[in-house]
Amino acid sequence: MNTTYDVRFSQIQQRSNGGASSFVARWRVAGKERSKSFRTKGLANAFMSDLRQAAKLGEEFDVATGLPVSMAAPPSSGPSFLEFAQSYALRRWNTSAARTRETDAYALLSLIPALVRDAPRRPSAEALREVLRIHALLPEKRRAALTTTQTATLHWLERASLPLSTLGEADVLRTALDAISVTFADTPAGANTVRRKRAVLHHLLEHAVEQKTFSGNPLDAIKWTAPKAVTVVDPRTVVNPTQARQLLDAVPKVGRKRGPRLKSLFACIYYAALRPEEAADLRQKNCTLPESGWGLIILERARPQGTKRWTNSGETHESRSLKHRADKETREIPIPPVLVAMLREHIAEYGTAKDGRIFRTGTDGSYSSSAYSYVWQEARKLALTPAQAASSLAARPYDLRHAAVSLWLNAGVPAPEIAKRAGHGVDVLLRVYAKCMDGQQEQINSKINDALDP
Q: So which domain of life are we looking at (predicted)?
């Protein structure tokens, strides 16, 4: 590369062509005139600021391109990691749920700022993540307009991003793994977070293999041990039936409106093992509620909460297919008389939303996770002893689902039937709830004895 320190800068000029304006940045390198056009004056100013700062720092300029060495395009075939990560995120957009999109983006917010060259005037990590979050990792129609500073930040990132091909090098991959092992506050990340981000990186590189960038996934060759994640339910979180009833009875005492409206939602999580997002989308047409005896819920949809920028509708809640199930696939759950009675009373008292949802706010909306979590925590204070309230016992509404499945297992209900009702695979069910199957030792030993000595 032929370089020089002979650089001179000119003023930005505005041009008009058929009513459309452009702004031209001009400078000279080794006596040769250079120029670059931009749609806005802010972009042109940001570009010229980069050039001036590079010259001020004593950086050499490439005579062939007219750019500082740090800005000159490196000899590389193929896309940068930023470009490939953008195409990866956009390619998966139409087939992914909002939470999957957010998970992908969350991993890329760690990886993209880490996989860059050491170039002058590096923006802060938070500034880099911001332009990725609101602009670069979103479809064109979802992108926010960038300020002049944000535009310069994205411009820096586009120049500094490493070529995708460099991820075939062990030291670059280790940089990536280091990046996903810490939080944005630079503290050790949780095991489940690290595993999720590593899975995104692995999947992204699988796409690179498909496009012939690599002959095999380079991540498979790295000797790296993922942190051990907890994959089983902690029995200390599981309430017994008496505690569950006390908690449900305490819910209506929280607030004048919200608590009474949420008691039956929490009851669905406990008595039918619904996930909170499944209860949120439960509709009257999904329920068979006889005057006496057992009823039936036929789940069709769930209503998870997401961040607006990642949902299809741009709303916080949107209805979608059940977790781990094909579109339009349903799940049947027989429900005990106690829950049948609660749902009948709830519908009689509060009616349903215009779309038939049973659980709704006073304005026909969906309760946010923070809203129902607040009610739950207040109910715990009312129903539990101070020591229990300070413990992990039923710490989250979701723990009611764990309590339901644990109760069914310990009652001797066959695992395939429980898995069917809870929406699990049998293998997952037995692994996740292994520590919650208490009180069966003597029964199991007896069965073995009977088999050994018929």
A: Bacteria
Question: CA-to-CA distance for 26 and 165, rounded, in angstroms?
Answer: 33
Label residues 356-388 b or e (16+ Cβ within 10 Å = b).
ebbbbeeeeebbebeebbebbebbbeebbeeee
Alpha-carbon 78 to chain mean position: 29
pLDDT tens track for 178-194: 999 999 999 999 999 99
Report CA-CA distances (Å) from 83 to 64, 108, 212: 24, 12, 16
d(CA 293, CA 257): 29
Domains of the chain plus CATH, in order, are: 3-62 (3.30.160), 81-221 (no CATH), 236-436 (1.10.443.10)
**Is pLDDT above 70 for 96?**
yes
What are 356-391's pLDDT values in tens digits?
999 999 888 899 999 999 999 999 999 999 999 999
3-class secondary-structure state, position 101: helix
CB atoms within 10 A of CB 352: 17
> What pLDDT does residue 441 have?
55
Q: What angle do CA 343, 348, 351 make, to 5 degrees?
A: 95
Which of 388, 287, 137, 392 shows the shortest CA–CA distance to 128? 137
pLDDT at 439: 47
Identify the burial level of 397 via C-beta atoms within 10 angstroms of its C-beta, where 0-12 means exposed, 13-18 middle and 19 or more buried.
buried
DSSP 58: T
Average pLDDT, the chain: 89
CB atoms within 10 A of CB 235: 15
Other CB atoms within 10 A of residue 74 CB? 11
CA distance 75 to 65: 13
- CA 123-124-126 angle, to 5 degrees, is 125
Whether the Cβ atoms of residue 285 and residue 356 lie closer than 8 Å to each other: yes
Q: Would you say 62 and 1 are in contact if contact means Cβ atoms under 8 Å apart?
A: yes
Angle at 254 between CA 250 and CA 255, to 5 degrees: 155
What number is the average pLDDT over the span 17-46?
84
Report the distance separating Cα 294 and Cα 306, nearest Å: 34
What is the reported pLDDT for 440? 52
